[in-house]
Amino acid sequence: MTNARGQGRVQQLWVKRAHRGPMDAAPLVTLVAGQGVEGSADRGGSRQVTIISEERWDGLLDQLGQRPEPAVRRANVLVRGVDLEVRRGAVLRVGEARVRVKGETRPCERMDEALQGLRAALRVDAGGGVYGEVLTTGVVRVGDPVAGEDEPA
Fold first, then answer.
1. Residue range 25-77, pLDDT digits in tens
2. Looking at the predicted structure, is the pLDDT value of residue 145 above 70?
3. Which residues contact 71 (CB under 8 A, 6 or more apart)?
4. Does residue 151 belong to any structural domain of this protein?
5. How far is residue 98's CA from residue 106's CA, in Å, rounded to a whole number?
């Protein structure tokens, strides 16, 4: 689940304080079991936290020829060194929290508002990242390790 160099890392974090509102960058967030990102407008349900891959994001932007900030993807966590093309049900340790992957995030029309063609590009090979439910409450900081449950932290 992680790359050949070992564990992945959290690169950036965001909180959405209002529906359709801006994504606020944060040095740390608290993931709350059964709820999601503390302070986020989107809490509860099966899509409690969304995670995207920095490598995948960079590759897509290379194809599109433009470089918007990853915050336009509207995810909560940007990771590096983690293969997000994982099976539904996989558990990731993200900082102090545990997240069960529920599925692949399907990008909405807002992606094309940010960059024409981004929505279609994100639909291929988990480019839009994954969403999951928070199993264990914990603080997540930029720089924290990310690994599959059965991998060393």
1. 999 999 999 999 999 887 778 789 999 999 988 888 777 777 778 787 888 99
2. yes
3. 12, 14, 23, 25
4. no
5. 22
User: What integer pLDDT is reported at residue 32 of this predicted model?
Assistant: 97
Structure tokens at 48: 């409690």
Question: Which CATH number characterizes residue 117's domain?
Answer: 2.40.33.20
Number of domains comprising the chain = 1
The residue written with tokens 């999951």 in the block is 132
At 84, give phi and psi (nearest 5°): -90, 0
Cβ–Cβ < 8 Å for 10, 19: no
CA distances (Å), origin 106, targets 6, 13, 25, 97, 122: 28, 19, 22, 23, 8
